Amino acid sequence: MNSPEKANQGSLRLRYIKLCIFFSGLSVFAQLYLFQPLLPMAAEQFNVTVGDTSLLVSSSTIGMALGLLFFAFKADSYSRKRLMVFSLISSALLTIISTWIPNLSLLIGIGVLKGFVVSGVSAVALAYLTEEVYLAAVPAAISMYLSGNTIGGMSGRILATIAAGEFGWRNAVFIIGLESLILGLIFWKLFPESKFFNPQKTDYHQKVKQMKGFLMNPYMLRLYFIAALLMGVFVSVYNYLTFRLEAEPFSLSHFIIAFIFLMYIFGVFGTMITGKLSKRFSKNNILKSFILLMLCGLCLLLSENLYMVIFGLGIFTLSFFAAHTMASQMTALHARKGKSSATSIYWLFYYFGSSILGSGTGYLLHSFSWNVFISVLVIAVILALLLATANTSANTGTT
């Protein structure tokens, strides 16, 4: 039930919530993928293969997956604000520390730890918004958070690429870490404390029972594997496209490559499009259509024409975000009870797909060619399409 004390449109409290939740998304995703455009430099620095350096990205997403699994059980045991503040500041400090780490293995280890602690924000941000914000204002607040995620991922990659080209990749990492620390301190100062939540003990037996039920449900399991496959393909493309664009026949500079990540703007459009289409069409049909469109965009990345590659990347990015938005909504809607457990498993598969496929395809690219690399990703997307085709729209939820 709505309370007059909840943050409403026009209130100072809601403005602070929206600003800070935007900053939190900005910080989390800038840090999570900051190494993505720096992989060629790191490979040269440590004299290792493409696949080895991709672990700098995958380590953070593995940590994120493990953290989300942990917080699926423990998030409600902590103050919402304190958990998010701890996550933002500790992750920023770990990013800053990464600047001086001389060893690749240790840097990967720090990445796992950073992903784990930063997952605290993702674990409770949406719960905080639904608890503290007046019902009519919740969609706008969630949009601010998701926009922060997308813009953080995009701006972090662009800033890291430009800074690395000018000052070296280590200084680029330091700049992102310092920026994230400042955002974390602003969040600490301005983000309102919870008024409608008190830490509570977790019913572990109930949580395990719910998760087991979702993992044994064919409909949900197919959605989870779709999330893993699509995210793995998406991260693979953005991990290694820099290598492709630096080489012949493109031979682009770091500065130009940085702006390739502006394609993330299409992700925002993809998220918005699904909201409009879902009012007119079956959710599963929308999901299948965007997976098919993602496949088309992926095939265009085989081209040696730069404009065709950019066009294909735009289609690929838009359709990924649209498909991911649809799959995550279908997961939450199908789970009538235990929504937090259902979505926790979704994110777990999502980030493990990012880690496993994102690194594995790097070794594939190193051993073979760009065409073979794209062909394997095409197979992964086709598998996701087959899973979506097998998932008929369900009329009843699962507990």
What does this structure look like?
With 399 residues, the chain is mainly alpha-helical. It is 78% helix and 0% strand. It contains 15 helices and no strands. It starts with 11 loop residues before the first helix and ends in a 9-residue tail after the last helix.
What order do the helices and strands come in, and which of them pair?
Layout: H1 12-32, H2 39-46, H3 50-74, H4 80-98, H5 104-132, H6 138-167, H7 169-190, H8 204-215, H9 218-246, H10 254-258, H11 265-277, H12 283-300, H13 306-334, H14 339-367, H15 370-390
Number of helices: 15
Largest sheet: none
Extended strand count: 0
What order do the helices and strands follow?
Answer: HHHHHHHHHHHHHHH
- What would you report as the Rg, rounded to the nearest angstrom? 20 Å
In round numbers, the mean pLDDT is: 87
Using brief descriptors, characterize the structure shown.
15 helices; disordered C terminus; 0% strand; mainly alpha
Describe this structure in a few short sentences:
The chain is 78% helix and 0% strand.
